[in-house]
């Protein structure tokens, strides 16, 4: 009876003892953690400060391996590996993260998104696409779609690009220009396979998406020109004047050829000179000079460039005046003039390039899609026009 009444007198100290022991073990564990973790971190930091990035990375990889709780560190390392182009390591790191059961939903989605980016960079588009599609209903939906769009552009998978851009549409970005460009890309693909009706349908869709799509108009003009329907080609190209007159420069040589082929050469020349007067920046001075030279002779060409120089003085304009002057100048002046023209050629070389207004990339060829920054319609169709002067 007494034993059963006072059992707790003995039990209590035992419980306390066990608790104390458990606490000791825990504290010891925690102490060892807090002691070892910062030491290793500082070791890595020291390497970083000494510029020994590779050794720092190895230290951090070691920390990540031995301390399972350092999930954020694993994310950082994975990101770093991808940036350094060590894609196999990045993929490995993110795959290991994904295998962990204790990840929150947000962490799992983040790891999946990171892994998809690794795959994309490694050119494993199918695997990236599958992962990104899985994220369509997560917090990463928009980012995943943006990545998918970039990937489809790289792969020239224009139909999928159109679908994705349509899903991305919102108040801040209509993707109108991009979608119209994707239709133009499809039209160009159809044209290389001689599927004219298909191309025509795509161009109609481009204009339906973006009524002022210059590229679609230019392509429709080119198609009509190739079919020798010069009147239709002229109409298509002239429609550009009311929407993007400077884009006319991209078709002007063919436009003049269309006038010539339909026996309306003089009308073409008059139009060319009128357009140049209206739009002084229109990038067709060389063409106008050549045309006047061949149709009306050197005096008319010389007079044209001199008048233009007075109205719209530019360095390439000056070069043209001297080139023309060289043709009519007395023999004793020619040697000197040739040197000046050559020097002017050197200093105006930059003005014979197209400039991307998004990234500044310069190129001799005109692009609708910048090969450097992948943005659309970032090149003004005027050579030498840089962003600052836009
Ligand atoms: Zn660019």
From TrEMBL:
Task: Give ranges for the Cytoplasmic compartment.
Answer: 24-390
A Pfam family recorded for this sequence: TPR_16
Which keywords fit this entry according to its UniProt record?
Cell inner membrane, Cell membrane, Iron, Membrane, Metal-binding, Repeat, TPR repeat, Transmembrane, Transmembrane helix
Q: Give the membrane topology, semicolon-separated if more than one.
A: Single-pass membrane protein
- Report the SUPFAM superfamilies cross-referenced here: TPR-like (SSF48452)
Residues involved in Fe cation binding = 356, 359, 370, 373
Q: What is its main location?
A: membrane
| Domain called LapB rubredoxin metal binding: residue spans | 354-378
Domain of life the protein comes from: Bacteria
Transmembrane segment boundaries = 6-23
Q: Where are the TPR repeats?
A: 71-104
Protein location:
Cell inner membrane
User: By its UniProt entry, which InterPro entries does this protein fall under?
Assistant: LapB (IPR030865), Rubredoxin_2 (IPR041166), TPR-like_helical_dom_sf (IPR011990), TPR_rpt (IPR019734)
Q: Which NCBIfam families match?
A: PRK11788.1-3
- Tell me the function of this protein: Modulates cellular lipopolysaccharide (LPS) levels by regulating LpxC, which is involved in lipid A biosynthesis. May act by modulating the proteolytic activity of FtsH towards LpxC. May also coordinate assembly of proteins involved in LPS synthesis at the plasma membrane.
Which HAMAP family does UniProt cross-reference here? LPS_assembly_LapB
Q: Which family does it belong to?
A: Belongs to the LapB family.
Name assigned to this protein = Lipopolysaccharide assembly protein B
């Amino acid at each position: 009876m007494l034993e059963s009444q006072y059992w707790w007198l003995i039990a209590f100290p035992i419980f306390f003892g066990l608790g104390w022991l458990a606490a000791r073990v825990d504290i010891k564990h925690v102490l060892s953690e807090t002691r070892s973790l910062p030491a290793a971190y500082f070791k890595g930091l020291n390497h970083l400060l000494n510029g020994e990035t590779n050794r720092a990375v190895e230290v951090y990889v070691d920390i990540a391996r031995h301390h399972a709780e350092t999930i954020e560190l694993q994310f950082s390392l994975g990101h770093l590996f991808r940036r350094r182009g060590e894609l196999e390591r990045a993929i490995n790191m993110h795959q290991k993260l994904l295998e962990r059961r204790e990840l929150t939903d947000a962490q799992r989605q983040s790891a999946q998104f990171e892994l998809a980016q690794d795959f994309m960079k490694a050119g494993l588009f199918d695997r990236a696409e599958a992962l990104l599609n899985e994220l369509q209903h997560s917090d990463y939906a928009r980012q995943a779609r943006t990545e998918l769009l970039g990937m489809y552009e790289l792969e020239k998978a224009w139909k999928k690009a159109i679908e994705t851009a349509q899903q991305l549409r919102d108040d801040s970005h209509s993707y109108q220009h991009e979608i119209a460009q994707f239709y133009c890309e499809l039209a160009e693909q159809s044209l290389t396979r001689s599927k004219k009706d298909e191309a025509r349908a795509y161009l109609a869709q481009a204009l339906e998406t973006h009524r002022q799509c210059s590229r679609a108009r230019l392509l429709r003009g080119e198609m009509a020109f190739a079919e020798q329907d010069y009147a239709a080609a002229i109409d298509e190209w002239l429609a550009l004047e009311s929407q993007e007159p400077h884009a006319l420069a991209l078709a002007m040589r063919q436009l003049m050829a269309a006038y010539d082929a339909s026996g309306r050469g003089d009308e073409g020349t008059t139009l060319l000179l009128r357009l140049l007067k209206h739009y002084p920046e229109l990038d067709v001075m060389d063409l106008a000079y050549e045309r006047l030279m061949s149709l009306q002779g050197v005096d008319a060409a010389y007079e044209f460039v001199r008048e233009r120089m007075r109205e719209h003085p530019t360095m390439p304009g000056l070069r043209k005046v001297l080139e023309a002057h060289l043709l009519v100048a007395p023999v004793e002046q020619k040697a000197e003039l040739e040197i000046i023209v050559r020097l002017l050629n050197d200093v105006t070389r930059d003005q014979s390039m197209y400039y991307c207004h998004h990234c500044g990339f310069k190129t001799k060829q005109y692009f609708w899609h910048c090969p450097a920054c992948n943005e659309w319609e970032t090149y003004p169709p005027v050579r030498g026009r840089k962003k600052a002067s836009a």
